Amino acid sequence: TRTSKPKRILAYVEKHAVPGDAESVVNAIDAYCSRVEWAMNVGSDKGKILDRVVSETDPDTVLELGTYCGYSTVRIGRLLRPEARLVTIEMNPDNAKIAKQIIALAGLNSKIEMLVGSSSDLIPQLKKKLDMKTLDLVFLDHWKIFYLPDTRCLEETGLLHKGTVLLADNVVCPGTPEYLKYIRNSSRYRSEYFPSRLEYLQVEDGLEKSVFLG
Ligand SMILES: O=C(NCCCOCn1ccc2cnccc21)c1cc(-c2ccc(F)cc2)cc(O)c1O
Ligand SMILES: [Mg+2]
Questions:
Q1: Residue 95 has pLDDT above 90, yes or no
Q2: Mutate which of 44, 50, 91, 94 for ligand 1 pocket (most atoms within 8 A of beta carbon)
Q3: What number is the ipTM of this complex?
């Protein structure tokens, strides 16, 4: 069947990345998407902010909402300790299939579990899945109108602990106004905005980091 953008990204990564070298996978995707065709990866500018937040948090458990091709999954996974675990949720099964191959090529299978489905269906099941553990870091990068309802759901399912970090992509472009309004006005979070650029473009975007206070 016809190729898709995720398939073309995978083909480029298979040709240009070094198997087992997560950094080379990240660099290959950035090279392709900056030179050949734009794709909605978090990219290298916001990616450097993501790296810093992940390193400072040093999480044991991570939830990513929105895998796409696995760029940020690999970006996060490459910084985690061997015993840490990352669960990533993707709704599109074709994207999930590509992402699984990119994650495998990066050598990160042991740390990363991919779930295919809607966050609203899967988040309530996570508590069981994580055997009563909570989340140290959540990276929100899926449908922008889902950021707020899913955050409320994470609160209600007891998956957040005092100190859990929520990091939200695209709070300027495409924008997540309802989420920002809630999280910045809630006494249960301490938020900070990191200005940056939309991936591979000169458009303004940024990440919102919010620490759950319990
Ligand atoms: O739309 C974006 N991401 C979301 C993908 C679907 O996510 C669907 N999805 C993935 C798991 C999942 C779980 N449950 C429900 C839906 C679920 C997205 C869009 C842009 C963008 C910026 C400017 C433009 F002109 C056009 C697009 C940039 C980004 O960085 C993004 O992340
Ligand atoms: Mg994004």
A1: yes
A2: 91
A3: 0.99
